[in-house]
Specification:
Blueprint lengths: L1 E4 L9 E4 L38 H16 L3 E7 L6 E7 L5 E5 L2 H17 L5
Antiparallel strand pairs: 1-2, 3-4, 4-5
Length: 129
């Protein structure tokens, strides 16, 4: 098949364009791009949580009594209480003879930080909204 090109410029001679395809030459090979499919996410294992307390209140009181008896030889006492501002459980180890605080868990600073966070949450998230 031949196509003649005709231009508007009279100085340029018309020329012929060859549009025949030589099928005897090998065509460049192309490789298929395979997109990797993401692996499916495995299901999370189900965990059976026993919501029943492991120890009864009476057994807990007995264990605390045993702990305090063991602490007598060290002249120390363990006191369990609840912080009134945060509602968190607090454990204090004190010197039995002087009443001096040896250690507290969580610390006074941690309890203050918890209280400040609770107050800030009250400012950020208003109950009316």
């Amino acid at each position: 098949m031949e196509i003649e090109a005709q231009g508007t410029n009279p100085q340029v001679a018309p020329h012929k364009v060859n549009t025949q395809v030589d099928i005897s030459r090998p065509v460049a090979q192309t490789e298929a791009v395979v997109k990797h499919q993401p692996k499916p996410v495995p299901e999370a294992p189900k965990v059976d949580i026993n919501r029943e307390p492991i120890i009864s209140a009476k057994e807990l009181e007995a264990k605390i009594g045993e702990l305090n008896e063991a602490m007598v030889s060290r002249n120390q006492a363990v006191i369990f209480s609840t912080d009134p501002q945060t509602g968190k459980d607090v454990v204090r180890v004190t010197n039995k003879s002087t009443g001096e605080l040896i250690r507290q868990m969580p610390s006074v600073e941690a309890l203050k930080a918890m209280q400040n966070i609770d107050q800030m949450m009250g400012l950020i998230f208003n109950k009316r909204t």
